[in-house]
Amino acid sequence: MHLARFPRVFLAHLPTPLERLDRLSKELGGPEIWIKRDDCTGLSTGGNKTRKLEFLMAEAQALGADTVMTQGATQSNHARQTAAFSAKLGMACHILLEDRTGSNDANYNGNGNVLLDHLHGATTSKRAGGADMAAEMELAAQKLRAEGRKVYIIPGGGSNPTGALGYVNCAFELVSQANDRALIIDHIVTATGSAGTQAGLITGLKAINAQIPLLGIGVRAPKEKQEESVFNLAAKTADKLGCSGIVSRSDVVADTSYVGSGYGIPREDTLEAIRMFAELEGLLLDPVYSGKGAAGLIDYCRRGRFKKGERVVFLHTGGSAALFGYDAVFAEGNKALRV
Ligand SMILES: *Cc1c(COP(=O)(O)O)cnc(C)c1O
Predict the structure, then answer these.
(1) Which of 41, 93, 212, 237 could form a disulfide with 46 if both were Cys (CB 3.0 to 4.6 A apart)?
(2) Which residue, by CA, sits nearest to atom 1 of ligand 1?
(3) Residue 192: CB within 6 Å of ligand 1?
(4) What is the pTM of this model?
(5) Spatial separation of the C-alpha atoms in residues 209 and 313, rounded to whole Å
(6) How far is the centre of ligand 1, averaged over its atoms, from the C-alpha of 191 (Å)?
(7) What is the Cα–Cα distance from 297 to 189, expressed in whole angstroms?
(8) 48 CB under 6 A from ligand 1?
(9) Catalytic site residues?
(10) pLDDT tens for each residue of 78-89
(11) Helix axes 161-180, 49-62, angle to 10 degrees
């Protein structure tokens, strides 16, 4: 397997750091917790979409596109990173934003990622929650093509076999960092949504026979559906790489018990995880993805499913820009000190 064979635009800050979280590990009293800092990939506050976009945007360029189109929820990190990448490459960017949470909050609808989408020069249009966003993108692209534009469509989350190559590469990078410092990784944990991150990681881990279990913490779909979409994408990614069949269905594990009432709606344990990372480690998570992923990580430590003596790597997928769309949910727990 040779990733250099695939076109790529080198814009990410790689390798991202692998760091030990001493205070969080001590607080939980279980395994040694490490963090893979994919919140530091660069491009407008970073995050996991940067690695995928390196391959997707190279494909767009190779096809002669002048306009990139993608879709996501209102506070989509993928939309923001696509807008930044398009700016850097001098391409137009149009984003369809789905009102997936139904929030009327002014910051949710205009601050955070939405503010940044527009700062990067992207245009946006809204769609109702539950719309068929893939079909909506095709319709919108038809209109732009009729005006003479060359449109390249990126699926939600950048999750197709091309985008997943970015996380195949991340698996190689992480295992090589661990090898260099003789760090034996017992588990890898990450948030999983549109599936490209988990699918790419598991394909890369299997390709090098790392034998490290990967746990996805779901943020939206029920378990069966999430695992199926990760598995299907991993199979296609392996096909693309010429190693069909290396990922088995049993390699794909997602725990979706931390989703709560829906996508983009944080639970108490999401907020607790965000506060713990912020207060103990000076790290910023987000209320939609990495906060739920970390809530799963913390719960697994507390319940002894990750044990003392083990080493767990949490892949930090980014998302902190969304915090500024969620200030209202934190207001209640803020500490005041009268001095
Ligand atoms: C998109 C996203 C994820 C989920 O990654 P997928 O590849 O869509 O499964 C996790 N965390 C953050 C911050 C994201 O923006």
Answers:
(1) 41
(2) 157
(3) yes
(4) 0.98
(5) 17
(6) 6
(7) 7
(8) yes
(9) 76
(10) 999 999 999 999
(11) 130
